[in-house]
């Protein structure tokens, strides 16, 4: 995982301090590329523990075309909860404590953090128990799963980009059009969070499948380790579906930034020595990519350093 650690060093040592949408502040660089040879092991960060199960359940959520956090909550995956809660807390139906700018306030005010956690648990409970509430406040809008599996074609129908790219790889492997886009300008304003990982392209050579992702915005400490593992896993899954071996994952970043309230955590992480990468294991050989469940996918030999906590910027 040296390419990732080098990115952290580059930003901390040479990045530009900037403001941002969340009001937190960042240090960033623009235009950076990392390459991971998937034959060298599965690129799951070892300098801090990274929750692989959450990565798996989120990716399968995308692949099923789902956009409602209820599905993730049922798997005890909370990584999208803040964006759904933000929608609820801003609605006229919400009558609880003021949650304006809750992400930043919670990072500096322990009493408010306790109140936020209490309100968040109430919200999760309603999402899981109330079908109507879940439909209204659990849906994140036309985010990744919608664009990947049901991109509106402008003619009243939809385009299944994932099925199309699998078919393209199988039947025309040398094509330069093995592309899936999540950035739909007509629907960006309706999304809880405009897609950060905006477009990816596959490439076939010598019986191996490689993938390059373009990510417009990259939260380097919290988000990027997830993104690396998620798209490495996607490359493995698409390779499995098309009868190829996994090749490389290439990660191209636009605005690569470290939030100012993550500086201490990044500094701590850079003092740690990377450990050997784990191996990916995919069970259920008869299942298609669309039928896999979280329990079918695991890593072996993962021995990371302890987790480093940091607040999320919403």
UniProtKB/TrEMBL annotation:
Residues that, per the record, bind dUMP: 21, 176-177, 216-219, 227, 257-259
Q: What is its main location?
A: cytoplasm
GO MF term set: thymidylate synthase activity
- Keywords on this record? Cytoplasm, Methyltransferase, Nucleotide biosynthesis, Transferase
- EC class name: transferase
InterPro entries hit by this protein: Thymidate_synth/dCMP_Mease, Thymidate_synth/dCMP_Mease_dom, Thymidate_synth/dCMP_Mease_sf, Thymidylate_synthase, Thymidylate_synthase_AS
Give binding positions for (6R)-5,10-methylene-5,6,7,8-tetrahydrofolate: 219, 313
Give the GO biological process terms.
methylation
The pathway that the record names for this protein is: Pyrimidine metabolism; dTTP biosynthesis
Active site annotated at which positions?
A: 196, 196 (nucleophile)
Q: Which residues form the Thymidylate synthase/dCMP hydroxymethylase domain?
A: 3-314
EC no. given is 2.1.1.45
Q: Where, subcellularly, is it found?
A: Cytoplasm
Q: Per its UniProt record, what SUPFAM superfamilies does this chain match? A: Thymidylate synthase/dCMP hydroxymethylase
- Which reactions is this enzyme annotated as catalysing? dUMP + (6R)-5,10-methylene-5,6,7,8-tetrahydrofolate = 7,8-dihydrofolate + dTMP
What does the UniProt function comment say about this protein? Catalyzes the reductive methylation of 2'-deoxyuridine-5'-monophosphate (dUMP) to 2'-deoxythymidine-5'-monophosphate (dTMP) while utilizing 5,10-methylenetetrahydrofolate (mTHF) as the methyl donor and reductant in the reaction, yielding dihydrofolate (DHF) as a by-product. This enzymatic reaction provides an intracellular de novo source of dTMP, an essential precursor for DNA biosynthesis.
Q: Which family does it belong to?
A: Belongs to the thymidylate synthase family. Bacterial-type ThyA subfamily.
**Which NCBIfam families does the entry mention?**
PRK01827.1-2, thym_sym
Q: Which HAMAP family match?
A: Thymidy_synth_bact
What is the annotated quaternary arrangement, including any partners? Homodimer.
- Name-wise, this protein is Thymidylate synthase
Taxonomic placement:
Bacteria, Bacillati, Bacillota, Bacilli, Bacillales
């Amino acid at each position: 995982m040296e390419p990732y650690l080098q990115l952290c060093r580059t930003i901390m040592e040479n990045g530009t301090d900037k403001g941002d949408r969340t009001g937190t502040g960042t240090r960033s660089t623009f235009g950076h590329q990392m390459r991971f040879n998937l034959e060298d092991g599965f690129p799951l960060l070892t300098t801090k523990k990274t929750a692989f199960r959450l990565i798996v359940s989120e990716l399968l959520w995308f692949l099923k075309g789902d956009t409602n956090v209820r599905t993730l909550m049922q798997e005890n995956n909370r990584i999208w909860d803040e964006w759904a809660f933000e929608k609820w807390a801003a609605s006229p139906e919400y009558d609880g404590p003021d949650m304006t700018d809750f992400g930043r306030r919670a990072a500096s005010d322990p009493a408010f953090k306790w109140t936020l956690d209490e309100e968040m648990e109430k919200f999760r409970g309603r999402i899981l128990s109330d079908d109507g509430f879940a439909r209204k406040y659990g849906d994140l809008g036309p985010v990744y799963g919608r664009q990947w599996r049901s991109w509106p074609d402008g003619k009243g129908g939809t385009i299944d980009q994932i099925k199309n790219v699998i078919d393209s790889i199988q039947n025309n492997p040398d094509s330069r059009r093995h592309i899936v886009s999540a950035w739909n300008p007509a629907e960006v304003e309706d999304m809880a969070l405009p897609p950060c990982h905006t477009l990816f392209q596959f490439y076939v050579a010598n019986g191996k499948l490689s993938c390059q992702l373009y990510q417009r915005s990259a939260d380097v400490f919290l988000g990027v380790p997830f993104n690396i593992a998620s798209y490495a896993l996607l490359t493995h899954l698409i390779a499995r579906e098309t009868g190829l071996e996994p090749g490389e994952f290439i990660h191209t970043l636009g605005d690569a930034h470290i939030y100012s309230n993550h500086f201490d955590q990044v500094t701590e992480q850079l003092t740690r020595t990377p450990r050997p990468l784990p191996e990916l294991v995919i069970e259920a050989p008869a299942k298609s990519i669309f039928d896999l469940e979280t329990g079918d996918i695991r890593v072996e030999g993962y021995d990371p350093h302890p987790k480093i906590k940091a607040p999320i910027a919403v």
